[in-house]
Design goal:
Alpha-D-Glucose-1,6-Bisphosphate, Chain A, domain 4, about 40% strand
C-alpha cells in the first residue's frame, strides 16, 4: 500500500494541535466536504475510541472511525471504514525550535470497496489525495492559528 504524505507548519503548541485533532468530532470543521461525526464510545477520547460518521460525497456515505494510536502531543492514527473503503489516516506532531509545530498528515488506502475508486486509484493516489491532504492541512492550520 502506498502512503500519501503532506506537511505544513502550524503556529500553535503541540498540545493544542493534539487536543484539536484527537477529537474526531472536530473533523467537520476542516473537512473539504459535508461531514457529520458522532462519538460512539464511552469515556475519554483515546486509542480505541469510536465515532460514527456520515460523509456527503456522491450521496450519503456512512462509516466508522476508530482511533488506533494516540501518543499525547506527538501522534494520532485512526482508521475509517465504510462502503467506499477502509483507510488509515495519521498525524505526526513535531515541535520546532521556533515554537511552531511541523504537522504531517498521512493517508493510506487499505481496501477499496467502490468499483469507481478501484479503477481511479492511480489518479486518486497521484493527484486527488495529495491535493485533499494539502487542503485539510490548510484548514487545520487556519482553524488552530485563528484560535490563538
Amino acid at each position: 500500500m502506498n502512503v500519501i504524505q503532506r506537511q505544513t507548519e502550524v503556529h500553535a503548541s503541540d498540545a493544542e494541535v493534539f487536543t484539536y485533532l484527537i477529537d474526531v468530532t472536530n473533523h467537520p470543521q476542516w473537512a473539504s466536504h459535508q461531514l457529520e461525526v458522532t462519538k460512539a464510545s464511552e469515556g475519554p477520547i483515546q486509542a480505541g475510541s469510536k465515532f460514527e460518521t456520515v460523509g456527503h460525497q456522491f450521496g450519503e456515505q456512512p462509516g466508522t472511525v476508530t482511533i488506533t494510536e494516540a501518543v499525547p502531543n506527538q501522534k494520532i492514527v485512526y482508521e475509517s471504514d465504510g462502503r467506499v473503503g477502509h483507510f488509515r489516516h495519521g498525524f505526526l506532531i513535531e515541535p520546532e525550535a521556533d515554537g511552531n509545530v511541523k504537522l504531517t498528515k498521512t493517508m493510506e488506502m487499505i481496501e477499496l470497496k467502490s468499483l469507481p475508486l478501484k479503477v481511479l486509484r492511480p489518479i486518486v493516489s497521484s493527484f486527488v489525495a495529495p491535493r485533499g491532504l494539502d487542503g485539510d492541512l490548510a484548514r487545520i492550520k487556519e482553524k488552530l492559528e485563528s484560535a490563538s
